[in-house]
Amino acid sequence: LRLGSATTSHDTDKLLGGLLSADGFDDERSCHSRFQSARYRRNAGKRPSPYLVSKLRQHEALQRRCGPGTDAYSNALEQLGSGKMQSYDGGECRYLVSISYSYQGLGNRILAATSAFLYAVLTGRVLLVDPSNHMGELFCEPFPNATWLLPPDSFPLKGYTNFSVETAESYGNMLKNNKIIKTDDAARMPPPAFVYIHLNHDASGGLDKLFFCDEDQRALRDIQWLLMRTDNYIVPGLFLLTGFQEELGMLFPEPDTVFHHLGRYLLHPNNHVWALVTRYYDAYLATARQRVGIQVRVFGADRESPELLKQITSCTRKENLLPELLTAAEPETANAVPAAARGQSKAVLVTSLKSWYYEKLKSMYWEQGTVTGEAVGVHQPSHEEYQRFRAKSHDTRAWAEMYLLSLTDVLVTTGASTFGYVAQGLGGLTPWVMYKPPANGSVVADPPCGRGVSMEPCFHDPPAYDCKTKKWADTGKIVPHVQHCEDVSWGLKLV
Ligand code: GDP
């Protein structure tokens, strides 16, 4: 494998500082990315805390003890199928099923599953990701000798993938209908067999968002099966819960590294995606002195926007990410530049549904020289034109491109895009974020971009309720490291 010139001691740390388990994956061939990713990352990233490492090992053991294929799992399915309210028997196997609408983009689904994983770890539940998320087709299994996928055929709740805010068993509806009581009397009431928690962006008005309150967490604790739907990165909301704060502090002494660590732990491209990533990297990015990622999130029906192109070039010039172009009046000085400088190059990786921005950037750096004499190569792996749903090859390319962006040295993202969030978090990169220009499409955003406040994703639909005062509140002011996002003003992110 080639890495360009520099190799660091971290390159050999293929288990990412203990984040990945050394045991249980005897056959490296079944998932190359697990063992090779460190060799492709110049930025070794942050080191996980020893506490996080030991907690992950414990969680893996829990998935093995209680997951599909075990007696404990068969018993738990039987209980769920019986549908009866049940007294909690203190058994250790409790479950969290993570579901997402299949029409959500891949970035959203990745953030949802990663958030669900953290909640499962915090609450000692087995995580099972519903396969209608199509996660199984893109990722390797993260847990040694255990699965993170729900076997759908034996799952007794029919129609669970269509559960919505209307579902009678949603947490909000069960509260409303007194099926769950949060007072001390609750101890005498047997808990329901399962509860569905609807934390999708359309949950705004419902009571499901009380999920982010401590007393509600106590009410949910003894329910054996929780099903959770979200399309969001709910992690900042978990940091608002007093009951989790101490544990989260030990797991993540640096709070702005949650997705960075959990993403690198969970999200391993399967061999097909990994082949796309590494072939592209080796062909276009490996030998460059510096790799610059530019994520241009546009939508299928968007026109080609000269203003957006200007925003991109203003951002990269202002922040010194790409060299200035010589103006037409200036003589070509390339030959006067010392040979050493001429040999150095920058590789720009553009990702977008459209090819227009890439074509323009590429021509610019071909038709004009740069003041530094550097050669700038511009590359874009695909242009899918429209966002598609339930299309495997489309998701495959999206995942490969998110991952390639995460291998760059500096990253420019489009604000509010979960696609960009995944790349920045995996890469350990604090991006330059291109904000949306004012609604009038004919102006260039000013400033064109700004440095993100952290590498964490933004929680776009956070609770706006203070559980202690029981009033609407600014949840960006409750704990110091949960603040509003730079790209979505009402969102919350860890800093
Ligand atoms: P978000 O909508 O920007 O938050 O990102 P998502 O990943 O959730 O949804 C956008 C979806 O559109 C992606 O998952 C892809 O399917 C597709 N898409 C958007 N931008 C790109 C791109 O640059 N490359 C590829 N291959 N697909 C993209």
UniProtKB/TrEMBL annotation:
Gene Ontology molecular function terms on file: galactoside 2-alpha-L-fucosyltransferase activity
Record GO biological process: cell wall biogenesis; cell wall organization; xyloglucan biosynthetic process
EC number annotated for this UniProt entry: 2.4.1.-
Domain of life, source organism: Eukaryota
Gene Ontology cellular component annotations, sorted alphabetically: Golgi cisterna membrane
Top EC class, one word: transferase
Compartment annotation: Golgi apparatus, Golgi stack membrane
Keywords: Cell wall biogenesis/degradation, Glycoprotein, Glycosyltransferase, Golgi apparatus, Membrane, Transferase, Transmembrane, Transmembrane helix
Membrane association type: Single-pass type II membrane protein
Summary of the function given for this chain in its UniProt record: May be involved in cell wall biosynthesis.
Family: Belongs to the glycosyltransferase 37 family.
Protein's UniProt name: Fucosyltransferase
Organism: Brachypodium distachyon (Purple false brome)
Lineage: Eukaryota, Viridiplantae, Streptophyta, Embryophyta, Tracheophyta
Gene (UniProt): LOC100840412
